[in-house]
Each structure stands twice: as structure tokens, then as C-alpha cells.
Specification:
Blueprint: H1 3-28, H2 33-38, H3 46-63, H4 72-101, H5 107-112, H6 117-139, H7 148-176, H8 181-186, H9 190-211, H10 218-247, H11 253-258, H12 262-282
Helix pairs in contact: 1-3, 1-4, 3-4, 3-6, 4-6, 4-7, 6-7, 6-9, 7-9, 9-10, 9-12, 10-12
């Protein structure tokens, strides 16, 4: 089978998976997304945009993953399996947002009735971060003799570790800020939600780095993962220092975000994401293990 035919098969399959993914997303969604679109409520589709991007990240990871030199249809089946696994894990991530992160108010009403941009932004961030983490898990090659079963276990382990850390980070971040994240988001403070979404995406990028690569022994992987998590806790606070002292030295970012200054929220979110991208490409934590 030539490369053009293989590419067309994967492209058509990917489009079908995205369509099925949207159908499943709408089945689990607790509001009518199309109704919100017709009523010109952009908050109704923002979470789905994060879900779609996360899904595309998983498809890309599965596609450019390891070449096992096996038959085409074997690799094709691997691709489809991890694509659907990623969809269901991202759907579960939406449940995590509702029950563990934005748990003090009705998320559906915030998005539909109040058109709360902050709530929608957090969902966008979680879905995208989840997609990046899963993408890294399905990209690497299994070096363990248990083969595909080990890879599946490792993928699920990294996913749940990532989700647990995201929840812990949200709690810590809430304690470190001079205001209550949940209270501000519930009060329609879009800037706080955008800022939190930026932090979540940044962590997703760094956890992607922690999860990517060959899957060897569990003990070695966990040590590497732990070092990456420590690096997140140590390095990300410097972003606020850089933002406060260099980029926005004439304003108080925390105060502006609390005052619902969307420009300040976007500025902090993008600086943190850019910083995480630099860490992803330039910092090698595994060399110190």
C-alpha cells in the first residue's frame, strides 16, 4: 500500500472520529450546544473547542507514534483504539471539572444562563491539557516486555496522575491568590477564569513533556514524572515575577485580574503558556535523575 493511500485512509478515519467524538460529547453534555449557538452565546461552544483541540492532539500523537514495523492494519487498529480511548478520557475530564474544580456552583447555568466566560475557559483549558497529556502517552514506544497491555496501563496511569495533579494545583493556586478563584468565577469574573485556564494548559504542556517518550520501567518513569512536577511548582511562580516586574511593571496584575480586567487575564495566561512551551523544548529534567 503506497503512502498516498495510507494518508487518505488516516485522514478520512480522523474526520470520522472527530464527528463521532462530537456526537459523544453532545450526548454527555448537559445543555443543548446548538441552541446556545443559535442564541449567539459563544460560551456554549468554547468548551467543545477545547475538546476538539484535545482530540486532535491525541490523533496526532497516535499517528506519529512509534513505528513498530507491524502490518498496516495492526497499526491502524492501534490508532483507532487510542483515539476512542482519548475521547472517553476527555469526556471524563469534563466530569472532573464539574465535581472537583468548579464544584461550588452549577456549571451548566453559568454557561447557558449567565454566559460566564470564566467557566467556559476553564473547561477549554482542562480538555486541551487532557488531550496533550494523552497525546504524549500514545506517542512513545513500549520498552517493557508486557507490550501493549503495559502501554495501556501506563497511558491510564499518566492520565489519572495528571488529572490528580491538576486538581491539586487548582486547590493550591486558589490558596496562593489574594482572592477566591471559585467565588470570582461564579461572579462572572472572566479574567480569573481565563488566567486559571492558562495555568492549566501550561501544566498540561509540561505534563506532556513528563509523559512523552519511551515507556520503560514504572519506577524510572515515576521518578522522572516526580521531577517534572517539582519543576512545575518551582518554575511557574517565576512567571508571575517576570510578568509583574518586566512585562507589566506599571500595573498590579493580581488586582487587575480581580477587577475583571480581561486584558490582564489574557496577558497572564499567554505568558504562562509561552513559558511552558519554552520549558517543553529547552529543559531536560531527565538528565538529573
Amino acid at each position: 500500500m503506497n503512502n498516498i493511500t495510507i494518508s487518505l485512509i488516516y485522514l478520512i478515519t480522523s474526520c470520522l472520529i472527530l464527528i463521532i467524538g462530537k456526537w459523544l460529547y453532545l450526548k454527555f453534555l448537559k445543555y443543548d450546544m446548538y441552541k446556545e449557538i443559535r442564541s449567539e452565546n459563544p460560551m456554549g461552544i468554547i468548551p467543545y473547542c477545547g475538546f476538539l483541540l484535545g482530540n486532535c492532539a491525541i490523533l496526532a500523537g497516535a499517528f506519529i507514534g512509534p513505528d513498530t514495523q507491524k502490518a498496516f492494519w495492526c497499526e491502524y487498529g492501534y490508532y483507532i483504539f487510542y483515539a476512542f480511548l482519548g475521547i472517553f478520557l476527555m469526556l471524563f475530564s469534563g466530569f472532573i471539572v464539574e465535581k472537583a474544580i468548579l464544584h461550588k456552583f452549577n456549571n451548566v447555568l453559568e454557561i447557558t444562563r449567565d454566559r460566564n466566560l470564566g467557566t467556559a475557559a476553564v473547561y477549554f483549558g482542562i480538555y486541551l491539557a487532557c488531550g496533550l497529556i494523552i497525546s504524549a502517552c500514545v506517542y512513545g514506544e513500549t520498552l517493557n516486555p508486557n507490550g501493549k497491555l503495559y502501554e495501556l496501563i501506563a497511558t491510564l496511569s499518566y492520565y489519572f496522575l495528571g488529572m490528580i495533579f491538576l486538581i491539586i494545583f487548582a486547590k493550591i493556586h486558589n490558596k496562593l491568590t489574594p482572592y477566591s478563584l471559585l467565588k470570582e468565577i461564579e461572579n462572572d469574573n472572566a479574567s480569573v477564569g481565563i488566567s486559571l485556564a492558562g495555568h492549566i494548559i501550561a501544566i498540561g504542556i509540561i505534563l506532556m513533556k513528563a509523559s512523552i517518550g519511551d515507556m520503560g520501567e514504572i519506577a524510572q518513569n515515576i521518578r522522572t514524572y516526580a521531577v517534572d512536577l517539582c519543576a512545575i511548582l518551582l518554575l511557574l511562580p517565576f512567571v508571575r515575577i517576570i510578568l509583574d516586574r518586566i512585562i507589566s511593571k506599571n500595573i498590579n496584575i493580581a488586582r487587575e485580574i480581580k477587577n475583571n480586567n480581561i486584558a490582564a487575564g489574557l496577558g497572564e495566561a499567554f505568558v504562562i503558556v509561552c513559558f511552558a512551551i519554552l520549558i517543553f523544548f529547552m529543559v531536560d529534567f531527565t538528565s538529573i535523575i
